[in-house]
Specification:
By secondary structure, this protein is α/β, with parallel strands linked by helices. It has 12 helices and 10 strands.
């Protein structure tokens, strides 16, 4: 594998890492052979939460399992312990494997007799050791604190975990599972194409992006979590004020603060969401005079940023690749050193790791 010398190199490494993840798919059946459940609670925050949110649609709509998402601090301090179900799985995500509230939450569930699974970037950390079942997310140790490969590989790992559990429940056939695996393999090539496309698009739109003093992201369906992760990437990397919404919510209270120096990205996959995006885009251009772009796939409209992929299920990974690249390029051109935190001294005041 090539040495990663920039965050763009990390993004470019994602397709290869997905393929590596798929070659080790038998590890999932070995570790999950005794797991049978129809509901899971996923405890995660930040990019890990957004990865889980991205996988949620697939797990619920295609695999027929219920998914609840909770932030670690809230779970540990406010979760009703009497409601813990021994028939449910509690899955914890922490890229570094040292988040204090995640570790405490795992220990709490273990003590109550629940089933715990962890996903971390490697298996040599306190969280992996505490969980009853552990997986590495397949991203390796990222050289940057702002996660890109971690988001994508966490999402892929969640797909694979719950496909296996669904097979154990006899809800997913081997044939159907194989088709999903083939799509994940094919999407690696689409990610490579999306990286090249995003670089070209950025060069053409750099001037407009530089003029924006804040960014809004909105998405429908499985693209709402992509909007949330894009929001985080721009906020922490560029850095700049951002916010994200489910696509219809954008036109309620938030529209009262819209100004012409803001930028808007409208992510739309389903036809109904696309039609809303077209109308919102028209409003933003004609009434607010703001920079706005619709992001979709396989569209022919010249006003749309068209992402090319044949993926029917895992297309959110292509959308996210676009925003990973754009946020990196914008941050770099604005002079941001992504190898450094802006306020590393915050750990003198509060430290969330063990």
């Amino acid at each position: 594998m090539k040495i990663e010398t920039s965050m763009l190199d990390t993004i470019k490494s994602i397709p290869e890492k997905i393929q590596e993840r798929l070659t080790n798919v038998n590890d999932f059946s070995g570790k999950l052979k005794d797991i049978k459940t129809v509901k899971v609670t996923i405890i995660a925050s930040g990019t890990s939460y957004n990865a889980a949110f991205t996988a949620k649609s697939f797990i619920e709509e295609k695999l027929g399992m219920g998914v609840e998402l909770i932030y670690p601090n809230f779970f540990y301090h406010h979760f009703n312990k009497e409601s813990l179900s021994l028939d449910e799985v509690y899955l914890f995500i922490s890229q570094g494997g040292t988040t204090k509230s995640v570790l405490e939450s795992i220990e709490m569930v273990n003590n109550l007799g629940g089933t715990t699974i962890s996903i971390t970037e490697n298996l040599d950390n306190p969280i992996s050791e505490a969980a009853q079942i552990n997986f590495d997310m397949g991203s390796g140790k990222e050289p940057y604190v702002f996660r890109t490969a971690g988001y994508t590989l966490t999402t892929v790992t969640l797909y694979l975990i719950f496909m296996e559990i669904s097979k154990q429940n006899k809800k997913l056939t081997n044939e159907a599972a194989q088709k999903y695996l083939e799509e994940l393999s094919e999407i690696s090539k689409d990610i490579e194409n999306a990286i090249s496309f995003s670089q070209k698009w950025y060069r053409q739109n750099k001037k407009f992006l530089f003029n924006c003093e804040a960014f809004f992201f909105a998405g429908g369906g499985a693209l709402w979590p992509v909007a949330q992760e894009s929001d985080i990437k721009f906020m922490e990397m560029v850095p700049i004020i951002t916010n994200s919404f489910e696509i219809e919510e954008l036109i309620h209270g938030p529209q009262n603060c819209f100004t012409e120096d803001m930028g808007f990205f409208l992510l739309a996959e389903e036809q109904e969401d696309y039609e809303k995006a077209v109308k919102i885009n028209s409003f933003l251009h004609k009434e607010v005079h703001a920079y706005s772009q619709i992001i979709s796939r396989n569209r022919t409209d010249d006003s749309v940023v068209t992402l090319e992929t044949a993926a029917e299920t895992f297309y959110p990974l292509i959308y996210m690749t676009f925003f990973q690249v754009i946020s990196y390029l914008l941050a770099t051109d604005k002079g941001r050193d992504l190898s450094e935190k802006i306020y590393p001294q915050i750990e003198k005041y509060i430290n969330k790791t063990v």
